[in-house]
Every structure is written in C-alpha cells, then in structure tokens.
Amino acid sequence: MTPFEIRVPASSANIGPGFDSMGLALDLYLTVAVYPSDKWQVFQNSPHLPNQTDDEDHYILQMARSVAARWNQELPACRLRIESEIPLARGLGSSASAIVAGIELADQVCVLNLTQEQKLEIGTEIEGHPDNIAPALMGGFIISTVVDGHVDWISLPDPDLEMVLYIPGSDLKTEEARNALPATYTRELAASASAISNVLIASLAAGDYLLAGRMMEHDLFHEPYRASLIPNYESIRDEAKQQGAYGTVISGAGPTMMSFIPKEKGQTIATHFQRFLPDYQVVLLLANHTGSSITHMT
Ligand SMILES: Nc1ncnc2c1ncn2[C@@H]1O[C@H](COP(=O)(O)OP(=O)(O)O)[C@@H](O)[C@H]1O
Ligand SMILES: N[C@@H](CCOP(=O)(O)O)C(=O)O
C-alpha cells in the first residue's frame, strides 16, 4: 500500500428550513494521512480532536471497520496521522466528516471500489440524515432526502455569496439539540414550513438573495425550538442584518451561526463581529467544491 491522505471538508446543514436536507461544504478540513504499519497507531495533532486513549477504538477506525465488515473484510493495520480544522460539536458537521473519512479509509485499504452513491448511502445510514454527509462527500451546496431507503440528491449552483460563521467557545451535541425538537408537527405547521423551504430553494436557484435571506430566517422546523440553546441567537441575527447580511441561520444543530453576505462584504462584517463577539471565533469561509479527496503520496 502506498501512503495516502484523505481530506474531508466541514459542512453546514439545514440553512434554516432545509432541516435534515440542505447542506453546504465549507473550506475547513479533516485530514487523515494513512501509512502501512504492522500494528494500529493513531497520532492526532489538533486542538479540535477528541482525547483518544485507545488507538484501536478511534471513532474513524470504528467507522472504517464497520464499512469493511459489510463486505466481509477486515481492515489491515495502518498508522494514521489525523489533523482537523473543524471544531467539534459546533454544528460544522465534524461527525459527518469523520464518518466520511472512515468510509474512504475502508474503501482504500480494502480496495472496495465503492461508488459515490454507495458511500452516500452508507454515510447517511450511519449519521441518520444526509444533509452533512452529502456535501462532505461531494462538495458544494446539496439538497438531499431519503426515499424508500435510497438517497436522492441534487446539487444547487453555488450561491454568489460569502459566508461568515460565528463559532462560540461552548459546544452543543447534535443529539441534545435534536432532543429539543417536537416529535410531531401539525399539518398546518408542516405545510407552512415546507412552503418556506420551497421558496428558499427556488430563490437560491434564481439568485434572489433578498428573498432567500427572508425565507432562511423564517424556519419553522427547528430554529424556534433551538434558539434558546444558542448563545446570542437574536443579537447575532439582528446585528448581521444591520451590517448588510441577507440572512443568518443556525449552522447544523448549532451553536455556531452563519450569515450569508453579499460578495466582497464578508471581511468587513467578520472584522466588525470579531469586536462585537470577542469570545467567538468569527471566520469568513468559502464553499468547498470538491468534497472528500484522496491524494497518494509519492
Ligand atoms: N475527527 C474526529 N475523530 C473522532 N471523533 C470525532 C471526530 N469528529 C467528530 N467526532 C465525534 O463526533 C462528536 C460530535 O458530533 P456532533 O455532536 O454531531 O457535532 P458536529 O457534527 O456538529 O460537530 C464528537 O464529540 C466526537 O465524538
Ligand atoms: N439536520 C441535523 C444537522 C446536524 O448538523 P451538525 O453539524 O450539528 O451535526 C440537525 O439539525 O440535527
């Protein structure tokens, strides 16, 4: 086996009313360098990675083993060097990126020759929803859903916008934020919520960002129930609007929030917000268009 590197982008899911369906890949990366070895060894080099006591038990390895087992294969031992720019449990899809890294690892070392569709279906089954997995795997802005056990998806042209993210110091586990949601919605609410989502997607596709910004701030599926878990939810939305953002949403399950900003204005707004929210990490990010990638080292 020649050494290789797996690179998987972060992603921001939901974009307001696209709950469990919309996601945008972002240019922050989880990187796993893989070398042949006679025993499992995992080296981690990043403040954004969970503490690891047992190399054999690493989450990415667990994912890779479970994928290999579906094809009745065992993972050969490897040495992994893992680095990450994706803050954990902040709503930037770190778990989906780790799942995709595990799928790519199994695919490469067991020579499974998985198609993108197979990777997407396996990742979605593990994560439970495709909104982070699809962009982490394929890049760009992806709308996806599961119908009859199959993941259907479509890629939207990249919005001609900049994204500013407000990342707080505190974390919020996706599971906890999902527990805040109602178990059922009335027909009236579901009809309004999906209508808002429909108008959002159509306005993004048409490039009508004023309308898209209005729709993304009127989600009825998850934001009203999660707002109280997100520090500075209202003040970030209000201040971003004052500064010229089209719209601001919870990134994934939070607690990060993300604004969609007219081109060329992102850096000014990010600089302003770093003063407004001194305890946050405020970053201007671009979309990632490639999704996960494998580079063989020579
Ligand atoms: N690179 C990684 N290596 C190991 N575990 C990871 C990695 N990335 C994410 N995880 C696991 O996923 C959890 C975070 O997932 P989640 O609560 O869904 O938040 P999010 O996906 O928004 O970052 C972490 O606490 C950790 O258990
Ligand atoms: N649709 C999911 C998205 C979770 O994204 P994450 O980045 O917070 O893991 C949800 O809203 O629960």
Automatic annotation (TrEMBL):
It comes from the Bacteria. Its EC number is 2.7.1.39. It is an enzyme of class 2 (transferase). Residues 59-140 form the GHMP kinase N-terminal domain. It catalyses: L-homoserine + ATP = O-phospho-L-homoserine + ADP + H(+). Residues 201-277 form the GHMP kinase C-terminal domain. GO terms for cellular component: cytoplasm. GO terms for molecular function: ATP binding; homoserine kinase activity. It is found in: Cytoplasm. Pathway: Amino-acid biosynthesis; L-threonine biosynthesis; L-threonine from L-aspartate: step 4/5. One of its GO terms (biological process) is threonine biosynthetic process. Keywords: Amino-acid biosynthesis, ATP-binding, Cytoplasm, Kinase, Nucleotide-binding, Threonine biosynthesis, Transferase. ATP binds at residues 87-97. Belongs to the GHMP kinase family. Homoserine kinase subfamily. Catalyzes the ATP-dependent phosphorylation of L-homoserine to L-homoserine phosphate. This is Homoserine kinase.
